[in-house]
Fold this protein.
Amino acid sequence: FNLVLGESSPAEVLEGKRPCQIDTVLETCQALQDAAQLIRLEGYSAIDKAELIRDQAYRVKDEAYDIKDEAYEIKESVLEARTQHETTLIEVLGLIHKQVLTTNSYVDEIRKTLDAVSGRMATLEQRVQSTQDEVGDVKQRFEGMYSEIKERLDEVNSEISEIKQGIDGLENEISHVITQGLDRLDGEISDVKQGLEELGQSVDDRIYGFTETVSGDLVKLEKLQTIKFIPAARVAQSTTYADYTGPENAVDGKYNTQSHTTCDQPLQWFRYYFPEERSVGLIKVVNGKYNSNRVRLNGARVSVMVDEEGRRSCRDDTITVREGETISSQTYYLDCSGNTGIGVEFVLDTGTCLEFIQIEVYAF
């Protein structure tokens, strides 16, 4: 064979890039070149055939996607009818869903077949024939599914007509019920109107009482402008809820801190000591809670400490908690004028927590 090729490589001679070198075997060399050319032509033919089959497969794939789109359009139509007959539509949607899944499965098979055709040229004709068979089977199945879906839609349309007749009867029944309900509502409205009139009178009474309370607080506030503040030398409380709720928080001048006892004792107390014995005038108290827990302070009593044992009552000695979730609505003024002592004490015996945001004591 080397004598046939001479100095040329086998690939160069077979591809026709170099001529045969030795005349005595020229005929054999040319026969080899002709055979190589024939092999190349047959390879190109096989490639063309593969590309043609691949194009056919892609067209089949496009047809499959078109059928899939039709299935989704049918699904949308069924969804519009769902409000009329939900149970039947769910069955139809389930069927469509299964058919779409089947479609996707066949599309995936076609895609895998195309990949196999591109990667395995040696078994091209066998794979192409298999692909054509599968595409024919897919098309046949789609035709069967389309017919089945159409039959199901005809059944749904028939059921929708029956539902429409039922709705007409239901509208008549609803109209009758509404008429009876309106008659009852007229009577109830009359009762509500009477109740509102009674409620209005109750609200007027409560507004009057609140006005009286606010007026009293304004008078006390005017007195507050003319009296002198008594700072706390020290403070103490019966129990402490947490490290950050000590008694000093009630006299720090801040409105974002508070004192807080525990809530598990039958009696809780808070003591505000003066630097020295002083005459007491007015006490300002800001409730420790603005929300529903503000009622915990209700019933707290204040007295002047003559000494560690003796106590003297104030003119206004009891806190009655008001409505409202603001600082102003939860600020209370207690008149303790006429008393002298070393401090003031708050006592709460309702079995709940004693909480203050601020306590200020003033002397006349």
Summary: The first helix runs from residue 2 to 5. Confidence is low (pLDDT under 50) at residues 1-5, 206-215. The beta strands are 228-230, 234-237, 259-260, 268-287, 301-305, 311-318, 331-348, 355-363. The helical segments are 2-5, 10-14, 26-80, 86-119, 124-224.
